[in-house]
Amino acid sequence: MPTNVTADYKKAEQAFREARSNRERLDCLREMLRTIPKHKGTEHLQAEIKTRIKQLNEELAAPKKGGRKGPSYTVRPEGAAQIAMLGPPNAGKSSLHTKLTGSHTDVGPYPYTTKLPVPGMIPCHDINLQLVDLPPVSRDFMEPWIVNTLQPADAALLVVDLNEPECVDHVAAVRERLAERQIVLEEHWPWLEGGIVASAPAEEDEILDDPFLIRLPTVLVASKCDLDPHPGELDALEELLGVDYPAIATSVKTGQGLEELIELLFKGLGIVRVYSKIPGKSADTERPFTVRRGDTVIDVAKLVHKDIAATLRFARVWGESGQFEGQQVGPDHPVADGDIVELHSSAT
Ligand SMILES: Nc1nc2c(ncn2[C@@H]2O[C@H](COP(=O)(O)OP(=O)(O)OP(=O)(O)O)[C@@H](O)[C@H]2O)c(=O)[nH]1
Ligand SMILES: [Mg+2]
Q1: Most-buried pick from 63, 165, 257, 335 (CB within 10 A)?
Q2: Angle at the Cα of 79 (from 142 to 243), degrees rounded to 5?
Q3: What is the pTM of this model?
Q4: Which domains does the chain have, with CATH numbers?
Q5: pLDDT (tens digit, 9 = 90+) per residue, 278-289?
């Protein structure tokens, strides 16, 4: 890991983590390569940055012959959060995707049906969560571009078919293949209470410096439970793997577990819906802005308009976060789910 990195490098690395598009990511990687101290200790990281630049360059390259654009391996985030589907071949990922989002992603009774990322939206209360179907991961094969695709994801579903005799090994393989590429399927969901979460690993300080490390809070989804009469098998799988994910058994045939899964994601992601209100008018109760638990009035203002955020003076809040309806609060006031917020800035 790099020690004594420069402030410029740190800045570029931070920008890379926050980048929303491949173009931005590529610019940040170039800046990281330019500013990284060039010595033995950073050789590995330099090589990794170069590989990522090459991959992104290829993806962003000019349209292929005949004017057709190459396939897109990245999905621009939309909705309140982006959730990636991971799992062994034939586990039922695409079936679940179709059921939850109404997409028509390919479903097949054979492995390796899905070849490209497929986005879709899950309606959840009055917002949407973006679900991205992905090709399978196995001991033998993982699409190399998946690492880039996962960059903007907020969480993952680890889909497993418990009817498959080798499922323990298959899930272990998914976790290992991803971990080799610095993608950690995390048991810890900061916003889930009730003892189903494990604490963050102790070695966090050592690995935090890795700009390519992606930690995805993960739900273990046991698919096709209509075929499996033994709910205890899910616990057995977790025990064998030595993991403790929030886990749900689902079936696209009976609909079991689907509502529960959506609710778990909504809670686990700490999604907070805020309804904006213009002074003197009633609140827009149709289209909430979404932030995360702990976010404040200024975070909401940034979503409304950057000029309003830049000149924000105070806000009035109605809802759980205030002590009384219409309370005047400062930009640092944390908002709560369902709040109505009236922003007052010198721009309004
Ligand atoms: N009985 C039952 N069968 C299911 C269920 N979900 C998926 N299947 C079947 O399982 C097979 C594989 O489903 P897919 O959704 O294509 O699986 P996948 O994980 O996307 O597969 P890859 O794209 O190859 O990784 C298909 O034959 C589905 O009909 C379910 O809930 N119940
Ligand atoms: Mg599929």
Answers
A1: 335
A2: 45
A3: 0.88
A4: 7-67 (no CATH), 82-268 (3.40.50.300), 272-345 (3.10.20.30)
A5: 888 888 888 999
